[in-house]
Structures are given as structure tokens and as C-alpha cells.
Queue: 2 jobs
Job 1
Amino acid sequence: MKKFKLIITSLIVLFSVGIHSIEANQKVENFRLNDQLGNSHELFYYSDHEALVFLVQGNGCPIARNASVRFHELEEMYSGKKVKFFMLNSNLQDSKASILEEAASYDYKLPILMDDTQLIGEALEITRTGEVFIVDPKTWKVAYTGALDDRLSYENQKKEASQHFLKDALDQVIEGRAVALSSTDSLGCLINFPEQRNKAEHKLISYSQDIAPILIDNCTACHRKGGLGPWAMTDYNMVKGFSLMMREVIRTKRMPPWHADPSIGHFSNDRSLSSDEMKKLVHWIESGSPRGEGNDPLLEAEISESVWSNESELGPPDYVIEIPTTDIPATGVVDYKYHFVKNNIKEDIWVKATEIVPGDKAVLHHVITSFGEVNLKGPRKGRLNFRTMKGLRGYAPGITTNPFPDNSGTFLPSDVTFEFQVHYTPVGRKTVDSSKMGIWVLDEAPEHEIFTNSMINSRIKIPAGAKNHQEFDTMTVKKDSLLYSVLPHAHYRGKAMEVSVIYPDGEEEILLSVPNYDFNWQTSYDFKEPVFIPKGSKLKQINWWDNSKQNLANPDPSVDVYWGDQSFEEMLFGAFMMRHVKEDEVVSSQTSENYRASRED
Ligand code: HEC
């Protein structure tokens, strides 16, 4: 029997020849992955730790299951130290659901990073589940790789380990000493990385037929001349020049800018790449971004030069409202500007879409657009009267400007005043901003009026240094409604968000999870199918903030932070775009007179 086992082991060793493996001292590049609970982890976020320890997990592997017990014990043992323990799952065959099941059966409490594209496991050259490795955040190098200890072997385990490879190495890393034994043979279940064996074929990925079309579909809307992106994907040479950076932003999920958990909800404006697209791009880049045969679709693509993103679908806007010109200094904090502009449209209209085009994208931070009647007296003299006030889509990078869905619109009476609340952030050079709003009009009165409900919790307090501070708010929906989109909002310390509905029977359903919130992008998440919210339900929004120094966007980790307009203050805010299922009054008979009458009671 013993002999038999030896043979198997040597067969496996033989089999492993030619398979690369993770190596001690190799550099680990940054990446971002979601765990089984939907939290997002970026490797470099943990730069304040003394060591990061990974166990390669895979469902159904006896060695990985067995090693996990000791791995959890070690985590417990080092809980007073700045050591972070992760599991990493790169298995082709495992899904979030099956990982959750395995975690429940084997009592895994650690974050299991789900490498569903295999791009991270492949680049690290991990080979087997059950393998462990330590990353030293001081150097981002692998300090140890191999077996956890010498207790386990195939179909056999000793009662006690006599060699504690991982623990010894970990102590040495923490003490800043050289690791004496930095690699051992690992054993466990081989992971199938089919693409690793296809490396020769990656050179044949066609720029012309595979790569450029992905870029045209997913990137050039912004990465074009005059677009939002900092560089234009004009041709092959530009793409090749930026290709390593493209690989980095794909691995860290910075680009395309889309921050929702892909396993929850479906959104019509989803900008994320599919798993196949990510793999194609990264494999093509890793094989040197070859030009190959064929034309250059980027040179031929009809990339819109219009300033209006709606123009291709809706034509030029019917009306353009100019937002007054503002001088922006080179540095400092510019107070919020409130611009009031009399509506110059001579008739009552139903708005199909609005879009704001920034005069200077670099400094225009956001615009909130409202309209209504101006108070002639009182403390809010000169500002809009709350009773008459309504909103239109504003501006922030990433905000959707799609036309209102489903035979719906917003009624805009002729003689109202627009209020543009504009926030500028100086960027080191003086400039002048003159932004404008385009309005597209519906030919006929729609059946439904769209409105926006706001979730506001202004009682928030985010303690200095807190890494994961949570607050929430709810609002009750009074009539049967359809929910079209949600824009959950926070400022620089915003870390994650979750939006759910609690039905009248108490059941809760998560509609949107944003595990990786980025203040630079104010995305409104547009549901593919509107969500029916029955009367009496509650909408709930949870925000998490990171007020620690590890949050690189944090303006000051040493202060408690409260609600406030400025980006160095914070918000728990959400804009919920909805309509009622049944209108009380016939929406199409809306006129200036009853618009006002309905708001004077
Ligand atoms: C909605 C607009 C938008 C889309 C779509 C978009 N980008 Fe970007 N991209 C930006 C903006 C704005 C920046 C600069 C700010 C930032 O880095 O977050 C940027 C930055 C980048 C950078 C980093 C440049 C640098 O040197 O820091 C790369 C690389 C990049 N994008 C690649 C891509 C790729 C590849 C795609 C498509 C798969 C894509 N982007 C899709 C807007 C976009």
C-alpha cells in the first residue's frame, strides 16, 4: 500500500513537471476581487498590514478542507497582529452559490476571494488548492509558498505536524527577518487553468476582430477625442501604448467604471466587461498586444463627435438652456453656486430627456437641477419654493442621461425658473466654465409622470479612523409604484452601499449592491426591468464609509465626519426614480394651472 502511494505521489510530481508554480520572491501585482459575501477587496488596500496570508481553496478538495481547519486556527492565533487571512478560489467549476455551500458545510469564516475569470490565479501561477502563500505588504513579494505544514499528505494525515512551514515563515515576516524556508512542495488538488496551456494561442487573438470591437463597445464612448476619458483610443498604436495600464485597470476593476456586484440585479446601463471580454483583453496584452492581420476598426469606427451623448439616438436637443458662466480659481474651495435661469421655453412641455454638457469637465464636479417658482419673500427669498420644486437629471461623471422609460416624462411648465446647484473643484489652473443643458421633448403627453424620491439620513456620524462605519435609512412607499433607477450617494469616504426593498410581509430583497463605491463616479443604476414596489413597502439604503488613512481618497482620517454638502463632509443620500402604477389624475391633462393648484394645498 505504501509503495502504491509513493507511486501516485511520484506520478503527480512527474505530472507537475512543466506546470509553473507560484514562486517565492515573485512580485504580486495589485488586483481586486469580491468575496463570497459580496465584499470587495483590493490587495493594495492592505498596505498597513504586516502580512497577508492566502489559502488556495477549492470545493471538494480533501486537502484544502483539511488545511482550512489549521488555517482558521492560525487566523485566531494572529488576531492581535496585523495579519490578514484570505482564501482564494480560482476553480473553473466553482460558483458563488457552491462556494457559499462549501463554506457553510466546512465552517469557513474567512473571506473567499472569487477569481471567476482565473486571471489572478493564472498570473500568480498557483497550481493546487490547499497551497498557501504569504504576501509581504512591505515589498508586495511572495515571502512563502507551499504547504501549510507537514501534517497532510495524500490520503494520509499525521496527528500532529512536526514542521510548521507557514507559521514559521509568518513569524519571520512579522519580525522582519529573512524567511528561512521560503518554499516547500505543495500538495492538494491541481487546478485546471485551461488558458495557461493556451498561451501560444493568445498570440493569435486578433486585434482586428476580437480586441478593437470590445474597445468600441465598452470604452470609446469615453475614450474618444473630447470624451470623458483622459486618453483617446484612436488607433492600434494608442491602445498598444496604454495596454499595460489597461491590464492593470481591468485587474483592479477600475475600468470600465461600474461598481455594482454582478451577482445582484440586472441593469440596462451595465458597463462592465463580461468574463470572456476580460480574459481576451488581458491574454492579448500578456502576449504582447500583437497587431496581427486585418484592418484597424478604431480608425474606421464611427465614433460620435457630438457633445450630446443622446444625439445618436434622439437627434440634437429641442432646447438648450445655458448655465451662467463661472470663473474658477486655480486652487481653494469654491462654495456651491446656485444659478437661477428663467425658463425661456414659451410653451408647457413634457420632457423626454435632459443632459448637461460640462463646459470644463476637469472642474465641474456636479450639477443638481431643479425647477419651480421663486420665493418672493421670506428667509428663502430668491430660492425655489419647496412646494413647486421638481427635479430633472443633473450632472456628475457617469450619470445616465437616457430618455425616461415606458411612456413617461416630466412636466415642465413654461414660466418656471431653473435652479442649477453647481459644485466646482479647482484643479490647479484658472478656468471659466460655461455648461449647458439640452432638453428633448415628448411629442405627446405621456401616460405617467416620473418623480424622484430622495433617501436622506442627515444624522450620520462617521468616527475618525473607522474603516467600515455603517448607517442606514428607510422610506415608506405610499402607493403601488415602479422603481426605475437608484443613485446611491456618498462622498470621498463612501466605501460600499446596498439598496433593498422590505415588502409589507417583512421579506427583504436586495436590489443593488455596490461593494466598491467610487466617489468619482455617480452612477445611476437603471434596472433592466422596473421593480414593482407594492404600497406599504419600505425602501432601505445602507452606506458604509471608510474614514481611515487606507482610503486614499480620504481628505482627513483624523476627524469625525457629519452630514454636509461639501465633499469633505459626508452624505447618506439616494435618488430613487419612480412612477406610480396608477395615476390619481390623468397625467396627460397636466397644465401650468393645475400644476400650481395641485401644489398650493
Ligand atoms: C464612462 C466613461 C469611461 C468608460 C466607459 C471607460 N473609461 Fe477608462 N477612464 C475614464 C476616466 C474618466 C478615466 C480617468 C479617471 C480614472 O482613472 O478613474 C479613465 C481612465 C482609464 C485608464 C487609466 C489611465 C491612467 O493612465 O490612469 C485606463 C487604462 C482606461 N481608462 C481604460 C479603459 C478601458 C480599457 C475601458 C473599456 C474596457 C474604459 N477605460 C472604459 C472613463 C471611462
Job 2
Amino acid sequence: MRDLEISNQELSDIAEEALGLAKSYWASLEGRRAYPSTTSENTTELFSRPWLENGRGREILQDFKSIAEHARPGTGRFFGYVVGSGEPIGALGELLAAVLNQNVTSWRSAPAATSIERAVVGWLAEAVGCAGFTGSLCGGGSMANLMALAMAREAKLPANETGVQPCVVYASEQVHMSIPKAVALLGIGRKNLRLIPVDDKFKMRTDALQAAITADREAGNVPIAIVATVGTIVSGAIDPLPEIADVARREALWMHVDGAYGGMAALAVPEKFQGLSFADSLSLDAHKWLYQPLDCGCLLNRHPDIARTTFSHSDDYVRILSEDPTEAFAFFEESIELSRRFRALKLWMSLQFHGRGAYREAIRRDLDHAQILAQTIALHPELERLAPVSLSAVCFRHRSKDNEAILRRVIARGRVYLSNATINGQFVLRACFVNHRTTPDDVRAIVSEIIAAAEELNC
Ligand SMILES: Cc1ncc(COP(=O)(O)O)c(C=O)c1O
């Protein structure tokens, strides 16, 4: 039987082999299918196996080839959902973070990691025009949105001690599913989430927002928060932040901005994001439009006092024994989790390795790619775009064929991957560009693949 402790020599050999696998995977990306040719039967047969009494040793690395073959690859031709491309320096950061195995609960538990996380959170805030906001990294936009609405609830109608009282939250009809989920989990109840109609550009209508708030007040309901979205999940629409901020200010409501998809683009096109700094809280996702390996969400806010009222439930065994405010700092006093991993190291390494300009240009290229796709669609009368291209998501359809069948064909052909959405009740094809590996040729392949798949359906 093996022992958990292994020799330095064996560790060094296996580390070298694992890095070799990573290097050949990255080198192979260009030639890989955009989606693996696999089924649940394949993956179950390959990967459902017992945990053996005796260890297999270094041989386990041999599994990597088939895992990679049955995994969604980070190629430049994956355009589904909002999936960042997994920048390799960030991946090396993940490895080194795991090697250090810090528990980033507080400065006392993880001195360097805590200072690094606070620094990179400051970089993100500054990059999107919200200098001075504080916050923390988390698993993703859903977790950030949940924490934001917990703060909103505690700021406007404190519930931590006495339990939730009836209250109302407002968001547009295009809001991401993580908001109804958060409202449900926080005991506010999905029926108290008002879905405000959007205009023809899929932006929240502030006249309808104001009317809904007024109607609620007249009915004796208690509004607490407005969720604006910058980069709606379907079409990338940006809600009108300055107007929403006016309503929030007038009505004394918390303004949360869900920037999980689009927020980081404020680094490249700040003019589209005016009013972002009026937010009380802002969700960002570095694993989306900052290309970082999963996972890396972030919640920024400008009310650390409310973050503490909301999340501070310290027990004696984690009591901080320092008067120095930096050494006394604890993430668990300002966010949900206690044990937390060292997410910040990948950002620390990747953002500094490439520099701010490289990220700005990569985001600009993604925005250009969306415009190239829109222009290519316009050249094909059999295709029709169904929403304006506000950021990097493009929604379109074939005018005369079954679009669901086209999408299935496109995925099976494996040359590009798109996802789908519903716009005005119609099934649409959706391509989203948050991928530093994508080239203009990859973008042009989208329309040729759609046309080829549509033709195949004739046979
Ligand atoms: C607008 C928006 N909000 C929230 C989320 C949820 O983010 P995550 O998947 O990181 O939890 C997404 C994910 O696509 C999103 O697009």
C-alpha cells in the first residue's frame, strides 16, 4: 500500500509530467473540436469507477488525455453562454495557489493572500471606474448577487435578528436567473421580485420602474432594492444606470448592478457604463470577461459597514487578536464564506503578466468580433439578427429553417459552438465573445457553419 507522503523525487517527476500535459493541451487547442464528440454513456463508462484500496500512483496522469477529449475545450471557437477562455498564466496561478493552500479567511490566517486579494479587488474596482469600492472575490456572479441582495435587505429592512419582513425588489425582465434565486434564498420570495418591462433595445424602462415602485408604495408594500444589469445574459443590453440611480436615490433604494457578464468591459469602453459608480454594490466575473480560469467572481460595494452588519457573526475561535486594522481584517466579517481559497493569485499573476493594456485590447477585440458577426449576418438574407449588439452577444436566426435543428447540427459538426436563447418567444441562436483566443476567421466560421448546417437539413 502507498503512503500519503511521497518522495521529493516522485513528486518532482509527477509535477513535470503534469506540466507537460498542460503544455501539450494548450498547444493542441487550435486543432480541437469546439465541443467534444461524446455522450453520457461514454463519460459514465470512462469515469464511473470504484475508489481502489491500493493507489495507482503516477499512472493516474494517463487519464488526462481522455478527460481532455471529453471536456469542453477552451478553443477560440467556443461561443456558448458567457464562458471565459481560461488564460494560461491564470491557470499557473491556480496551481501555485493550491500549492500554498492558504485559507483566506483573514489576514491572520493568510497574510500575503489577504493583502493580495484586497489589492486585486482594488484593481478591479479602479478598472471599471469604481475606485474606492471594497469587496471580495467569490465563486461567481450568482454568489456575488446573493451577497449583494443580502446587504440590500440588511441595509433597508434588517432581517438578521428578527427574520425577513415582506419587501420588494425590482429588476428588468431580462434579469439573470441568479437574481430570482437570490430573492428566493433570502426569504424575500420570488413573487416579490417585480420584473420591469424593457424597451426595444432590451433595456429596463425607467418609467415602468418608477410606476411599479409607486404602485407598490400605494399598496403598502416596502421596496428595498433595484437590480440593474450591465450586459444582460441574452443580448448584452446595458440598463440605463444614471436614470436608475436617480430613481434609487429618490426612493432611497439600494442599487445593485449585475455586471457578471458585461461589467469588466468598462475597462475598454467606459463611455457605455456611465453611472456604474452610483451603484451601492456591483457584481463582476473575472472568469468571464477577464478570461480567468474558473472560478473567480467578485462583489464590490461602497458600504463596508453594511457588509459587516450583514455578514459578521464571529465566533470566539476566530477572534482576531490584533489592534492593527490590516492585521485584524477578516473576509468572513464582510462576506458569506469562512474557509476560502486563494482565488486572487491567478489575477495577481495574470493581470500583471500581461498588463492592463493587453486586457483592454482583448475586450475591444471581442466587441469587434461581435460587430463582424453582425455584419456577416447582414450579408445573408436568409439570416436575421433579433437584438441590437450592445456588447459582445449576438442573437440571430435562420428565417426559414428549424433553428433548433440547425443548432444541434452545428454542435454535432464540432467546428463552432453556439448556444441558444429566447427572444420575444422565439428560439434564437446566440454567440457570445469573451475569448482571447478567437480570431476574425473563427468569427466568420459561425455563419458558414450555420449555412452548411441549414443545407444539411435539406437532405
Ligand atoms: C448577467 C449575469 N449575471 C449573473 C451570472 C451568474 O454568474 P456565475 O455563472 O458566475 O454564477 C451570469 C452568468 O452568465 C450572468 O450573465
